[in-house]
Structure formats: structure tokens, C-alpha cells
Design a protein that fits this description.
Strand content: 25-35%
Helix content: 25-40%
Structural class: alpha+beta
Number of strands: 10
Radius of gyration: 20 Å
Length: about 210
């Protein structure tokens, strides 16, 4: 019985796709794809950082997730439908753009690419499901605490949320108004729970479960 062929690693698959597209650098603040645009290509992230943002009918934006090296976005290229979210650059990024025609050609000759894409889509759905769950079942303060806990790292014996992380950005990520976030942050600073600078948010002690 023949041995099964080895399954290519995700990095190998991304490298294969990258050879099919055009690579360029994007500066912070650039909008790579805009919500509502026709999905005619996908992108591979080699370096930098980006965020996916969806804007509702009322004009309020919510950050769905962040993207970094090894990620890809624009999977709706397979359907040819409109973009469901905008993707913005937050740190200078190097991306490869792969057209729909090239992507479909790769799928026909490399079924392992399709399997890798399915796995990535499943993971993306899980992240979005958790995000929506938090937005619908937890109040604004609870969502903000959850965000801080998820982003916090140890630094010189203190737990910190690396920045810059503006109040507007926090509001987008927790699905709240900037005014509400400003009030909660002010109260936490006054209560001695956090210390805020441009570079970080220091968690000085355990945040209260409710506010």
C-alpha cells in the first residue's frame, strides 16, 4: 500500500499562492479593501498588522479581528460577491494580491490549498462567533475587560496592554460609543485600577467583575 503524500505546511501553501500574485508595501492608515467593494482578489499578509472593520447602518464601526504575518483575507473572492468588511493597515504591511483567476487556477491544480483554506475559514468563523457572543451577552464594561485580558502581556513584573490603543479603537472592538469607553477608562484610572499612556495600558490590579 502506498504511503500518503505529506501534507504541505501552511507556510508552504502561502508561499505557493504568493508566487501567483503581486507584492507591495502598504502604509499605516491605508484601506486595502473597502466594505461593499466587489471581491475580485485576495491578499496574503507577509508582515505588518491590519484590522477588519464592519460599519453598520448607523455609521458605527466594529472591529471584527486583527491580521498579521501568515494570515490571508478576501476569501469571498470565491463567490465574487461584495466585501463584507473593510481591512485597514495599522502597522506598515507587506501584502501579496492574488486575483480571482489565479486563485481558482491554483485550486484546480492544488486541492491541498482548498483544504487549507477551509481550515482557515473554520477558524475565522470561530473567532467571529466568539466576538458576536461577547457583543450580545456581556455589557460594555465586561467586553472592555475581556479585551484587556485577551491582549495583556507580562512586562517588567506588570500586566500591560501594548499600545497604542486609542479609546476610539477600543470602542470599535467592543461595539460601544467612544463616550462610554471614555467614561469607563476615566473611572478605572481614578480608582487606581489602570494607568494609561500612549504606549500602553498598565493593569495595576485586578479589574472589578462589574462596574
Amino acid at each position: 500500500m502506498d504511503e500518503a503524500a505529506p501534507v504541505p505546511a501552511p507556510d508552504e501553501i502561502l508561499a505557493e499562492l504568493a508566487r501567483l500574485g503581486e507584492t507591495r508595501t502598504w502604509e499605516p492608515g491605508s484601506v486595502v479593501v473597502a466594505q461593499g467593494d466587489v471581491a475580485d482578489c485576495m491578499y496574503i499578509v507577509h508582515s505588518g498588522a491590519l484590522r477588519a472593520v464592519v460599519t453598520g447602518d448607523g455609521g458605527r464601526s466594529t472591529e471584527l479581528n486583527t491580521l498579521g504575518p501568515g494570515d490571508l483575507f478576501g476569501e469571498l473572492v470565491l463567490s465574487g460577491e461584495r466585501r463584507s468588511a473593510s481591512v485597514e493597515v495599522t502597522a506598515r504591511a507587506r501584502l501579496t494580491r492574488v486575483t480571482r483567476a489565479e486563485f481558482e487556477r491554483a485550486l484546480r491544480t492544488r486541492p491541498d490549498i482548498a483544504l487549507d483554506l477551509i481550515h482557515r475559514l473554520v477558524q475565522r468563523v470561530r473567532v467571529l462567533t466568539r466576538t458576536v457572543g461577547r457583543l450580545t451577552s456581556v455589557d460594555v464594561y465586561g467586553r472592555m475587560v475581556g479585551l484587556f485580558e485577551a491582549l495583556a502581556v507580562q512586562e517588567a513584573g506588570c500586566r500591560v496592554v501594548p499600545g497604542p490603543l486609542s479609546q476610539a479603537r477600543i470602542a470599535e472592538r467592543v461595539g460601544a460609543s467612544r463616550a462610554m469607553v471614555n467614561r469607563l477608562m476615566h473611572d478605572l484610572v481614578q480608582g487606581g485600577y489602570i494607568e494609561v499612556t500612549r504606549e500602553r495600558i498598565a493593569l495595576l490590579r485586578d479589574l472589578p467583575p462589574r462596574w
